[in-house]
Design brief:
Distance between the termini: 97 Å
Helix content: 25-40%
Amino acid sequence: MNKTTIIFCTKLAMLNVLVFCFTSCKNTIKTNDPNSSNSNDLALINSNLERTASKKNPDLYYGVDTRFEAYTKEDIHKAKTIYDFLTKEEAQQIAYINSVDVIIIKDNEQSRIREYGTNDRLTPGQLKLLRATEHFSHFTIRTEFKEKNTENGNLEERFFGPHITVVPQKQAIYRDGKESLITYFRENSKESMNVIKEDKLGAIKLSFIITKEGTISNVQHDAMTTGYSSLDDKFIELIKNIPGLWIPAENSKGEHVDQELVFTFGPANGC
């Protein structure tokens, strides 16, 4: 073999090595190519994880209480003026009263059963209407008045409309405590929250009766909806199956009586 042939063979061998290395590197790079099926799968998994991590339900409110602000029949019978239904701070805002309307609420709406007045003292008709209310009754006292603007001294039109529920002398009590009751609803509804989409959630009210025997009855979808029927149904189921015992409500004679309570659920900033 002459010198020229040896040089040619050497170059050919080196070229083969370079081709092999290039092919190997290309194949290695292709494995990590984002267009490959494995990379697509990995990207999809990462995307799903990021989406799941970023999805966050709104802050939630759970409550069990009377429908509106609670007043006993005895308190209502003692009332003489609208100030018996207002806070001290609210009373201080009133400079002049235009009108006072006592309105009975039925089916979550203001009814036509009402009595009108023109000053802070409740009229005989208003007193009669209020004293005729029974447990489970609801009413509002809409007071339209003028408030003095502290900056310019002008009188400006305002109104108060407290909503009130008539309750027994002693209200029904959950033996394990209210916080335990709320924890029961929160913990047992977690899985049902998966239906919530993009923070879209409404509030719901479900009413039920604690009977004079301390049992739960008459669970009803009272008002509004979360926007998800499965979630609404879940809370109805949870109310029907509340564990533990209730101490029944009592009237002024110490007799056990039924009491209505309302479960409320929804966004914390919307309940």
